[in-house]
Amino acid sequence: MKPSKSSDKKRVIVDYKNVTPDILEMFTDLYPYGYEDDIIKFKNAKGEMVTAVPVETDDTKYLIKVGVEMDAKIEAFLDDEDDDESEDDMVSEDSGMEAPSDEDED
Fold it and tell me: 59: left (phi > 0), else alpha (psi -120 to 50), else beta?
């Protein structure tokens, strides 16, 4: 039997401190309403209990360690993303406006 493609994927456990913006964006796209129902708990090699959430790309399966700090990081990321979108909206709104004419219309 041929192994499935998913078994060929690299498996990586990432601490919230080391989450890249790309992975964080995938995370927020996958879990727009929260990740509470998708939490995985396991013991690591040191016997410590780890709480993580899965995120999968074409070539890698990530387990992102979560906790209070991860919630804060996600919130900051989303706020930053909202600020960027607000600035883009303001620029696009301003670009469509015409300056008033100084000439009198007779």
Answer: alpha
State both tokens at 60.
């890698």
Residue matched to tokens 């300056």: 99
Selection from 55, 67, 63, 68 nearest residue 25 by Cα: 55
Distances (CA, A) of 103 to 23, 93, 94, 95, 96: 54, 25, 22, 22, 21
pTM of the complete model? 0.59
In contact, 88 and 81? CB cutoff 8 Å: no
Neighbours of 55 (CB within 10 A): 22
Q: In this structure, what are the phi and psi dihedrals at residue 51, rounded to the nearest 5 degrees?
A: -110, 125
In the predicted model, is pLDDT for residue 99 greater than 60?
Answer: no
* Number of structural domains found in the chain: 1
Residue 81's domain spans which residues?
A: 8-91
pLDDT in tens, 41-81: 988 889 888 889 999 989 999 999 887 676 677 778 778 87
